[in-house]
Amino acid sequence: MVPPVDPCRARLTGRYLSALCCIASRKDLIRNLFASTEYASQGIYTIRFFKNGHWKHITIDDRIPCNVTPATCALPMLTRPT
């Protein structure tokens, strides 16, 4: 959640969320964001983002980094324990 005291981030976040909402119901537009699914069976994707007037290609994987300990089992690194 973006704090209300940070209007710059709020506007930026709102733009991205608005764009995602616009394309969410259009499978063809979602598919167009994937520049490559050649290695999808191995969990690797190249996704296209339009930023500053240019398309940027970012390669990601579908793994979530986790800390594995007896106390947390497999707690994703980007979370906080409750």
Describe this structure in words.
The longest helix is centred in the N-terminal third of the chain and has 18 residues, at 7-24. The strands form two sheets. The chain has a three-stranded antiparallel beta sheet with strand order 1-2-3. The chain has one domain (7-76). By secondary structure, it is α+β, with helices and mostly antiparallel strands. It has helices at residues 7-24, 27-33; strands at 34-36, 44-51, 54-61, 66-69, 73-76.
Number-wise, the strands total 5
**Would you list the SSEs in sequence order as H and E?**
HHEEEEE
Q: Could you tell me how far the N terminus lies from the C terminus, measured between alpha carbons in angstroms?
A: 17 Å
Number of domains: 1
Oligomer: single chain
Q: Give start-end ranges of low-pLDDT stretches.
A: 1-10
Tell me about the largest β-sheet.
3 strands, antiparallel
Features:
single chain; 82 residues; alpha+beta; 3-stranded antiparallel β-sheet; two-stranded antiparallel ribbon; 5 strands; 30% helix; disordered N terminus
Short summary:
The protein is α+β, with helices and mostly antiparallel strands and 82 residues long. It has two helices and five strands, in the order H-H-E-E-E-E-E.
Please outline the helices and strands:
Blueprint: H1 7-24, H2 27-33, E1 34-36, E2 44-51, E3 54-61, E4 66-69, E5 73-76
Antiparallel strand pairs: 1-2, 2-3, 4-5
